[in-house]
Amino acid sequence: MPTKIEKDAVTGQETTGHEWDGVKELNNPLPKWWLWTFYATIVFGVAWMVIYPSLPGWKGSSGWVAREAVVADVAAAQAANAPMMARLREATPAQIAADPELRAFALAGGRVAFANNCAACHGAGGQGAVGGFPALVDDDWLWGGSLDAIEATIRHGIRTAEDADARNSAMPRFGLDGMLTNNQIGDVAEFVLWMTGRATHAAETERGRVIYAEQCAACHGATGEGNRELGVPRLSDQVWLYGSTKQDVMAMVRNPRMGVMPAWQGRLDPAVINMLTVYVHALGGGE
Ligand code: HEC
Ligand code: HEC
């Protein structure tokens, strides 16, 4: 490292003393336009810090805070919607569905409320999810697809202790409680497959038919049509909560899984429950 300042012979400029393979770096001054832009950004930054809330505890000389601005915007939007929300709160879902203006508002609001509260279980578009979360876009209803039935389901929930009026029912634990042997469970599962044309063992199916009539028909119906009073699913279709294979059916008969849905009354504004009712009803399968 040379210590004394060297001058470049060609340009007369000082060098930095750095040298690569005989090429020396000149110590040119920074361009003026660059330097002044640099100073300007520092001035701008300091001014910004003074005017806006940029440091912990410093609200800024302007008094403008993004968080407060959002709160004010939300309050203004709520105030603007208040008359409409009051109408939605007082009307029944049937009245909302019949009024084009209320219905349009309910569908838009219902979509947002559904995304916030329901999509985690029922899917973003209400398409349902494997493992007991029913699709809400089809016309296959466990508890009913009328406006009244949907409203009752949303308001009170299903098999939840939160609400005394929750929809309730339970399938017996045929395997776990020793009501049926493993062979009998296999037979009745074969008969359940038979109902959708998928049975492969004739003898099992016939034994299963007898067991089904004795143990299952009271809830699931003589021909597997289900029962909405008890939220009992139809077994004679292609829609399954917990899976369609023989193993899935046998698992269900051994130790049934019972779907639980929270009650939304008390959690959501009654106007929002009405909007959700109209929205779910309009998803495709409303009756
Ligand atoms: C924690 C999960 C969960 C959340 C959140 C949830 N649900 Fe459900 N929902 C379920 C389950 C599970 C069932 C089926 C219960 C059963 O097996 O009977 C169900 C059933 C339903 C049904 C009845 C469907 C039928 O076929 O009769 C409706 C309607 C419904 N939910 C609407 C909603 C709405 C609207 C929301 C949002 C406000 C919501 N759910 C939020 C889990 C959930
Ligand atoms: C006391 C009424 C009751 C009886 C008896 C009953 N079930 Fe069920 N079963 C239900 C209910 C309620 C459900 C729905 C559970 C849920 O929604 O989470 C169900 C669900 C099922 C399912 C799941 C369907 C799906 O979509 O995934 C199968 C399979 C089933 N039952 C088979 C049977 C068989 C086979 C028998 C007879 C051995 C039987 N059940 C007896 C009430 C009953």
Automatic annotation (TrEMBL):
Top-level lineage group: Bacteria
Compartments where located: Cell inner membrane
Keywords: Cell inner membrane, Cell membrane, Electron transport, Heme, Hydrogen ion transport, Ion transport, Iron, Membrane, Metal-binding, Oxidoreductase, Repeat, Respiratory chain, Transmembrane, Transmembrane helix, Transport
UniProt remark on cofactor binding: Binds 2 heme C groups per subunit.
Pathway membership: Energy metabolism; oxidative phosphorylation
SUPFAM superfamilies: Cytochrome c (SSF46626)
Needed cofactors: heme c
Domain Cytochrome c: 105-196, 203-284
Residues annotated as transmembrane: 33-52
Cross-referenced Gene3D superfamilies: 6.10.280.130, Cytochrome c-like domain
Cross-referenced PANTHER family: CBB3-TYPE CYTOCHROME C OXIDASE SUBUNIT FIXP (PTHR33751:SF1)
Functional note: C-type cytochrome. Part of the cbb3-type cytochrome c oxidase complex.
Assembly description: Component of the cbb3-type cytochrome c oxidase.
Family, as annotated: Belongs to the CcoP / FixP family.
Name of the featured protein: Cbb3-type cytochrome c oxidase subunit
Organism listed in the record: Neoroseomonas terrae
